[in-house]
Predict the structure.
Amino acid sequence: MIKIEKLKRADITNAYKFIQKNLMDFPLSPKHSRVHWAERFNPKYVADDLFWSEDYACVVAKSDGKIVGLVNGYLDSGIVWFSWLLIDKKFRRKGLGSQLTLATEQIYKKKGYHKAVAETLPNNTRSNKLLKKIGYVIEAKLRKHYAKQDYFQWAKWL
Ligand SMILES: CC(C)(COP(=O)(O)OP(=O)(O)OC[C@H]1O[C@@H](n2cnc3c(N)ncnc32)[C@H](O)[C@@H]1OP(=O)(O)O)[C@@H](O)C(=O)NCCC(=O)NCCS
């Protein structure tokens, strides 16, 4: 059974292993960006104030207590900024990425957030299809954005 909940301190080692296993061989985003994000979950950084602040949003999907999906984001002035979504390779294409994103939207909608935003590479077809399927629209095309790569900016009213 899948359980979706906010990341807890007790999850951090589990989350770090999950990210190392699933993010580091993801070829579409720049390697330094992946290393940066994976290292944010290194248990030695968990005391970082930003990581545990009210403005940071991280929601995980667990199967039998093991993390199989993680969505990472920030909260700012009514907006949920998704920075990345990652699903365990064995759990992909079963609706979990959609379920986790929708559940995260609901958590923050209840707290008064009015809009969710995500940025994706134009060639990340699976991610772009997922966002479109759950109601996001392309609001902007960002030229030479992160690491000088073009990105789509997707948005949805909550
Ligand atoms: C992108 C990702 C999060 C999708 O997670 P998922 O749980 O497999 O997605 P879902 O099962 O909810 O799929 C929803 C829709 O997305 C699209 N989709 C997902 N995977 C796809 C694939 N491999 N090929 C084509 N379309 C795909 C489909 O439209 C799918 O709907 P359908 O199954 O009814 O056709 C997952 O593949 C992943 O972790 N990828 C690596 C990291 C990444 O790219 N993250 C996003 C950018 S930060």
Observations:
- The chain has one domain: 2-157.
- Residues 117 and 148 are 20 Å apart (CA to CA).
- The helical segments are 12-23, 31-40, 96-109, 125-133.
